[in-house]
Amino acid sequence: MIRGRRLGILFLLSAIVIVVAPLLGSQTLWFDTLINAPPGSHLHDIFWRIRVPRVLLSLLGGAALAVSGLAFQAIFRNPLATPYTLGVSMGASLGAAVYVIFGIPFVLWRISGESLFAFLGAGLSVVIVYGLTRIRRDFSTITMLLAGVAVSFCFSSIILFLQYIGDYSHTYRIVRWLMGGLEVVGYDGVLNVLPFVAIGSLILAGLSRELNLLTAGEDIAASRGVNVRRIRKVVFFATSLMIGGVVSACGPIGFIGMMVPHICRLLLGTEHRVLVPASLIFGGAFLVLCDTVARVAIAPAEIPVGIITAMIGGPFFLWLLLISNAPRK
Amino acid sequence: MNGEHALVVDEIDCRIGPQTILDRVSFTLQNGRHLIIIGPNGAGKTTLLKCLMRILPTTAGRITVQDRPLTTYTQKGLAKQISYVPQTTGRALECTTYEFVAMGRYPYLNALWGLRRKDKQLIDQALELTGTSKLVDQSLDTLSGGERQRVCIAAALAQEAKILLLDEPTTFLDPLYQTHIQQLIERLNRTLGLTVVSVTHDINGAVLWSDQILALKQGRVAFSGTSTELMDNGVLSDIYGKQFLFTTHPQTGERLIAPDGRAG
Q1: Which residues of A touch B80 (CB under 8 A)?
Q2: pLDDT of residue B167
Q3: What values do phi and psi take at B29, rounded to 5?
Q4: How far apart are CA B109 and CA B106, in angstroms?
Q5: Which of A210, A239, B164, B174 has fewest C-beta within 10 Å?
Q6: Alpha helices, DSSP H only, in chain B?
Q7: CA distance linking residue A286 with residue A63, whole number of Å
Q8: Closest CA relative to residue B138, chosen from A220, A269, A79, A209
Q9: Dihedral of CA A314/A318/A321/A324: which sign?
């Protein structure tokens, strides 16, 4: 029952964060000011066209990053498995960097060229890492993780090279992109990311039992009837697509994919039918919180959100490790 | 309907990379019998179990389960026929005993439904049979080696499969627990009529408990037969490359086998 109470508190806190976040910013809006403001006023614009879409994008991005980390950690049985260690984020970053340096600005179906290239880059890294495991069928999960790390390093050195040969404005754009950001106006960004997150999350939620079994080990999972190879493939691709979509819109926001699932596990145990929704909500709310801090801390200027996620999350996670006491049942 | 033959293994090979782990291994096992697999370390015993559970692919030969080719089963379908208790490793899970045993019901569940009454009954039954009912709320990582082994067997029983594969079920246990687990396996075999395939290094146990013994050596079948035949001259020394001494237990009259510790 401890688990139920903790889950309740987590949901409640998340809900509070999500409701309060759009009110805060360089100018604090209160509900009554909003209601009393004449229709079409700039206050409405700030609230509905800038803050709410941004909170929604953070919510989707955080949820996707967290649940992807959870799924990767389960199928690889390794606490370090995240979209980052597997090269997906670096692939996306490389795509964006290539576009910035060489790209001709274009927009396709409301999707910016930068996002499209980022998505292609994410796909490239997935194909490389997964292709390696197809060539060598006996690849262990550790080898696959190492392959991901190697691909990441390789990509990041290419990004550095591109920055080096690029001019200052290009370099600045790339560096800024790598820090992650959620600046959107209007709902296009949100609507572009939504299908990726919705489909990916539904697939993972439907595979909760399989994730439980894979956490117990491949042999156990196979002997209980899980088609390990197929499930791993489905999870790997669903998750990578979701991350590709999110990273192409928000940049590679670190930390959430690794820490949120850990925090959920420390608080809630190992049942994925609980962990999947919990990571979605908590991950989403956590990114909303970080982005709010990023907007408010040195207002009217903003801090890139990737810096905040690690600054808030790191110490919090260390504190949790110290006091942790996972509930049994 | 179950046929006569629980398992028919016909000249299977298993290669991993350049290495041949199993080389033309064959045996037949009737329903309800207890097959014990022995052999030196690295002989391919665990690999054989993993091929039966389709955790590893075979590269040649044919396996049939209840007279149906292994390849025609889905993994879930196979899990309804065979359950597998891997060798206990050091790494323990943080889930509770109940959660772990409940995972045995996986092949019968779909993504939407939770456990139904029948599932819960079978889980309770499995817990009771293995004497682990008291441990349901404990986390697996707080259990002793013997308790954990019994919980693993309980999870396999919850799976309702007629064939039970056990990989060195007693290896890391103290003598008292070894006996407990042996007796439990015997009960499952004799009373519940489960077909059991177990891997062990305990030759005396193999002689005492098995209906049938298979010895592997460097991936090949070195011996296949009954315990009496195993004690024929030279069979064991062929398998292990070492002389063995045979004697009779002074109280029980059971045959005892020990590797000859003297030179040679």
Answers
A1: 225
A2: 92
A3: -135, 125
A4: 5
A5: B174
A6: 45-52, 75-81, 97-102, 117-129, 145-158, 175-190, 203-209, 227-230, 235-240
A7: 9
A8: A269
A9: negative
Encoded amino acid at B25, one letter = V
Could you tell me if B66 and B121 are in contact, meaning their C-beta atoms sit under 8 angstroms apart?
A: no
> Residue B38 in contact with residue B239, Cβ under 8 Å?
yes
> Does the distance separating the beta carbons of A223 and B82 come in below 8 Å?
yes
Task: Name the residue among A260, A313, A205, A267 with its Cα closest to residue A7.
Answer: A267
Q: Does B109 touch chain A (CB under 8 A)?
A: yes
Question: Which structure tokens are listed for B262?
Answer: 């003297």
Q: Where are the beta strands (DSSP E) in chain A?
A: 107-108, 111-112
Q: What is the 3-state secondary structure (H, E, C) of A18-37?
A: HHHHHHCCCCCCCHHHHHHC
Cβ atoms of A164 and A156 within 8 Å: the answer is: no
Q: Does B40 touch chain A (CB under 8 A)?
A: no
Contact B161, B2 (CB under 8 A): no
Q: Kindly calculate the radius of gyration of chain A based on its CA atoms and give it in whole angstroms.
A: 20
Q: Residue A222 and residue B111: Cβ atoms within 8 Å?
A: no
| ipTM given for this complex | 0.86
Work out the pLDDT band at A327, boundaries 50, 70, 90.
Answer: very low
> Which residues in chain B are closer than 8 Å to A218, comparing Cβ atoms?
55
A223, two tokens = 């002997």
Q: Is the pLDDT higher at A78 or at B175?
A: B175
Buried residues in A150-178 as b, exposed as e (16+ CB within 10 A):
ebbeebbeebeebbeebeeebbebbeebb
Helix (H, G, I), strand (E, B) or coil at A322: helix
Contact B140, B148 (CB under 8 A): yes
Question: Chain A residues with CB inside 8 Å of B77's CB?
Answer: 225
* Three-state SS at B243: coil
Distance between CA atoms of residues A277 and A257, nearest Å: 14
The residue among B186, B185, B87 whose CA lies nearest residue B145 is B87
CB contact under 8 A, B78 and A216: no
Instruction: Give the rounded distance of the alpha carbon of B29 from its chain centre.
Output: 13
Nearest Cα residue to A254 out of A291, A301, A212, A307: A307
Distance separating alpha carbons of residues A309 and A183, to the nearest angstrom: 16
pLDDT in tens, A147-200: 888 888 899 899 888 888 888 888 888 888 787 777 777 787 888 889 889 999
Nearest CA-CA partner of B5 in B51, B62, B58? B62
Beta strand pairing call for B244-248 and A107-108: unpaired
Contact B78 A225 (CB under 8 A): yes
Residue A31 contacts residue A236 (beta carbons within 8 Å)? no
